[in-house]
Amino acid sequence: QDGRIVSKRRVGCFAYSIVGEELKISSQYESLKKMRSWGFKVPDYSVISGSLSDVFNYLDKWDKDRFNLPYEIDGIVIKVNSFDHQFNLGYTAKAPRWAVAFKFNSEQIKTKLLSVEYQVGRTGAITPVANLKPVLLSGTTVKRASLHNSDQIKKFSLRLGDTVLIEKGGEIIPKIVSVDDNNSRVKREIIKFILQCPSCGTQLIRIKGEAQHYCPNSNFCDPQNIGKIQHFVSRKAMNIDGLGNERIALFYRQKIISNIADLYSISPESLRELDGMGDRSIKKLFDSIESSKNRPFHKVLFGLGIRHVGETVALKLTNTFKSIDEIISLNIESLISVNEIGEKIAKSIVDYFQDSDNIDVLNKLKDAGLIFSIQEKSKSVNNRLSNKKIIVTGTFSSSRDELKDKILFLGGTISSSISKNIDFIICGENPGPTKIEKANQLGLKIISEVDFYEMIQT
Ligand SMILES: [Zn+2]
Questions:
Q1: Ligand 1: centre distance to CA 306 (Å)
Q2: Is the dihedral of CA 426, 101, 93, 439 positive or negative?
Q3: Ligand 1 center from residue 249 Cα (angstroms)
Q4: What burial letters (b/e) apply to 431-441, b meaning 16+ CB within 10 Å?
């Protein structure tokens, strides 16, 4: 979210491979040496192994020694050294046949469950969080673990005071793996999931088929309101700088803003009294709010934070329907007729626009000048892919024909053979492995379906 904070973290980067046409190298090991000679940071511990038993010995060694490294590793990659051999082995649909990742077991540790608290997300979803007796795990002190939903509590029959085994997986927040079962446990009561929203007290609901409980009081529940504003200003939505999560919460508590539309009518005076808001940061914030008015329709739609309407769904909607008024007028049936939009999403969209508070906010955003329709396409826009040679590979969320129609409509040419003359490749799921490999060798540009739709829309 905030680049300045990230820049203070000492982020490092190790290089593992290079791609190029005239590198004059023929193996993985040589490529590491070359990169080191260019000044890149390359891991010092790579070795060429002569036999499988060497490989296993190496894995055993680092399973213990990894704790002495100045950084954390979660595994080791074993590759076939020779590029010729790599080429002959090729790829499966998902991965190269000449490389494999070995993962160490994640570190686990026991600690005590002290309490459970409940967080309310911007869509009203309730997430239980376990507060733990602090313990050191993989180099950081762990105090909390996510419990995801009420099923998780039931699964372990969790009781306060339980001794739990926790593990840090791929996620930042550790999870509970198991519970120490003992006789004294059964005397204590199993944790009861809350029935009311911890913030506004509204009776929680659970939608059939979903694991999460929700607070349905979507417009008058503080954490939901704050979360919605945080989502709206985020980089993938309106990209408003200078409004971190803490500051949004502060503005909300000070009643400077109570919903996303209020961002466009903040008075500079109301900010001057706040700590840390000098003239410069106020000007920066207003500039950023002003430029958010140029964000394209699909970003605005995504920014509204309609449940289940993520980036891809927002793009799909704005590609199919040309204005917010058109979308508001749709019923569930016409929404479902759009590829990949199911009943759950359709119902959520219809519900959102049936709420008069949401329509009020929407009208204020319109008055502020935000973009709520696809801009009239000029001739040049319709030709924006002219002279472009494009390859399509893999499967897509919309049909491949739909994608091809779009390319042809915008003046592009679809090609089936890879050469240097190709402008870019749109790559879906399970692409042709040889195509991708060849494309990489030629240094061609590979983009995703979402990238493509963004490209033709903005
Ligand atoms: Zn609530």
A1: 17
A2: positive
A3: 16
A4: bbbebbbbbee
Distance (Å) from CA 251 to ligand 1 centroid: 19
Q: Which two tokens stand for residue 252?
A: 């909300």
Expressed in angstroms and rounded, the spacing between residue 447 Cα and the centre of ligand 1 is 40
Domains, in order of start, for the chain: 15-103 (3.30.1490.70), 108-187 (2.40.50.140), 222-294 (1.10.150.20), 297-368 (1.10.150.20), 379-457 (3.40.50.10190)
Cα–Cα distance, 135 to 115 (Å, whole number): 15
Interval 388-439: pLDDT, tens: 889 998 888 777 777 887 887 787 888 878 888 899 999 988 887 788 888 8
The model's pLDDT over 212-240, given as tens digits with 9 standing for 90+, comes to 999 999 889 999 999 999 999 999 999 99
Q: How far is the CA of 127 from the centre of ligand 1 (A)?
A: 12
Residue 283, C-beta contacts closer than 8 angstroms, at least 6 positions apart: none
If you measure from the C-alpha of residue 150 to the centroid of ligand 1, how many angstroms do you get, rounded to a whole number? Answer: 17
DSSP structural state of residue 264: G
C-alpha to C-alpha distance for 115 and 137, rounded to whole angstroms: 19
Closest among 99, 103, 104, 102 to 16, alpha carbons compared = 99
Q: How far apart are CA 426 and CA 131, in angstroms?
A: 45
Instruction: Report the amino acid identity of residue 188.
Output: R
Is residue 304 a contact partner of residue 232, using CB atoms and an 8 Å limit?
A: yes
- Residue written as token pair 């008015």: 293
Please count the CA atoms within 13 angstroms of the CA of 84 that sit on its side-chain side. 2
DSSP-assigned beta bridge partners for residue 179: 164
Q: What is the CA(266)–ligand 1 centre distance, in A?
A: 25
pLDDT computed for residue 458 by the predictor: 57
In this structure, which residues have their CB less than 5 angstroms from ion ligand 1?
197, 199-200, 202, 215, 217, 221
* Cβ proximity of 383 and 410 under 8 Å: yes
How far does residue 329's CA lie from ligand 1's centre (Å)?
Answer: 29
How far apart CA 123 and CA 133 sit, in angstroms, is 30
> Of how many residues is the chain composed?
458
Strands of the 413-414 sheet, one edge to the other: 413-414, 389-393, 424-427, 445-447
Determine the distance separating the centroid of ligand 1 and the alpha carbon of 64, expressed in angstroms: 48
